[in-house]
Specification:
This protein is 82% helix and 1% strand. By secondary structure, it is an all-alpha fold. It has two domains: 206 residues, Growth Hormone, Chain: A; 195 residues, Up-down Bundle (Growth Hormone, Chain: A), CATH 1.20.1250. The longest helix is centred in the N-terminal third of the chain and has 49 residues. The N terminus is likely disordered.
Length: 409
């Protein structure tokens, strides 16, 4: 019996409200999955102080997670093809929890790096299986709502991670906090294994021939560049901002974490007006404009202090998240209706590796050799230059398409 037929009742899918409890359960898994990867951002000042390493090593935490996450997402189809989507979700959640428990007891950087790599491997299996489970349970007319409920998890994660960190540091240690999240993942894996519905279908291994088609497209590589820097503008900046506020601005850890949390509240609603702007003015224009403004607002993070810095901390994420609705729409058109999903599944892991791993490490490296604020300036300049470059390239492509359709040409 497949996930689709399980969700059927009297020849049709169950009403959306009947599926909501299962969506909430999946979203809870996704929230813990996401928290396990971003919780290190607000904890880095405390971890740096305890273990005595520099900003480069701090940034490399996210690089090691990304190095594991990249191949895991790409090969998730091979795993789910053998053990079904549901079992893949349980495996991912259980493995991530066990890795976090082990990481909490690591005392050397070698052990911590190995655990971070393992965390990326474990957590990367979840997303393709989770999305496939949702589309199997929810009627096609409600896929947008179902995925929207699921995608609340990372937005909520950005908000509550600093608050959880504050509780960890105040009442215990970062190691106990990490261990607690790991235990939570293990418990949720068991709960989903017992109570989760749907996900009985098996996945399809990725088609390597399709990947080769995209790798030969210049537009595909341009989108990877833009997505990489857009992910840097959200996750990369989020990862390193607590260090900047604590070590660069002299803010105490609790205040920095509260500020980080508050700055992400309004980002939950921003994709809605961003999507409207894309429909109204064109997705390519909005995509480029959002990355350009995000870059211009990232630069002041490394230069300002006091009130102007606070304004930049709040404005930068509001603009940065506006990139993604239009960018996903543009990316999905590269392969047409048949291959659009493949374009997303190939590009996002690569972009996450660069934007969520390499760029935070680069920011930290610049911080060790010069100043951490200089790392933010370089990241902002990279976003700005990439946006301008994309605007020029896309404008030339638009003119070329116009010339091809001009009857006088």
């Amino acid at each position: 019996m497949t996930a689709g037929t399980q969700a059927m009742a009297d020849g049709g899918y169950l009403p959306f409200r009947r599926v909501l409890p299962q969506l909430a359960l999946l979203s809870s898994l996704f929230l813990l999955n996401f928290l396990s990867r971003i919780i290190f951002a607000p904890l880095l000042p405390q971890i740096e102080q305890e273990l005595g390493f520099g900003h480069t090593v701090s940034g490399s935490f996210f690089l090691w997670i990304s190095v594991g996450y990249f191949p895991s997402v790409l090969t998730s189809g091979f795993v789910s093809a053998r053990i079904t989507f549901k079992r893949t979700i349980v495996l991912s959640t259980l493995a991530a929890g066990c890795v976090l428990v082990m990481l909490a007891h690591c005392r050397t950087m070698t052990g911590i790096r190995a655990a971070l790599f393992g965390l990326g491997l474990a957590s990367g299996l979840y997303l393709p299986a989770g999305l496939s489970t949702i589309t199997g349970m929810v009627a096609p007319t409600f896929w947008g709502r179902g995925i929207a409920v699921h995608e609340l998890a990372p937005n909520i994660g950005f908000i509550i991670a600093p608050l959880i960190c504050g509780v960890m540091v105040r009442w215990s240690t970062w190691r106990h906090g990490i261990e607690g999240i790991g235990v939570g993942l293990i418990v949720m894996a068991v709960l989903y294994g017992l109570k989760g519905r749907g996900g009985r279908d098996r996945g399809v291994p990725p088609d390597l021939a399709v990947f080769r088609v995209f790798l030969a497209m210049p537009q595909f590589w341009l989108m990877i560049l833009l997505f990489s820097l857009a992910i840097c503008s959200t996750m990369g900046i989020y990862a390193m901002l607590p260090l900047l506020l604590v070590t660069g601005q002299g803010m105490d850890g609790d205040s920095a974490n509260r500020l980080l949390s508050l700055s992400r509240f309004c980002t939950i609603i921003m994709p809605v007006p961003a999507g409207w702007l894309g429909d109204r003015y064109g997705n390519r224009r909005v995509m480029v404009a959002a990355l350009l403004l995000a870059g211009l607002l990232t630069i002041p993070l490394g230069l300002l202090s006091g009130g102007p810095l606070l304004a930049a901390v709040f404005l930068q994420p509001l603009v940065a998240v506006c990139f993604f609705p239009s960018a996903f729409a543009v990316l999905s058109t590269l392969g047409g209706k048949k291959l659009g999903a493949a374009a997303v599944s190939l590009s996002i892991p690569m972009a996450f590796l660069v934007g969520g791993g390499v760029m935070p490490t680069l920011i930290g490296g610049i911080g060790d050799h010069f100043d951490l604020g200089a790392g933010f300036v370089v990241a902002g300049l990279a976003m700005t230059v990439a946006a301008v470059l994309a605007a020029v390239i896309l404008r030339r492509e638009a003119r070329a398409r116009g010339a091809e359709h001009d009857p006088r040409s």
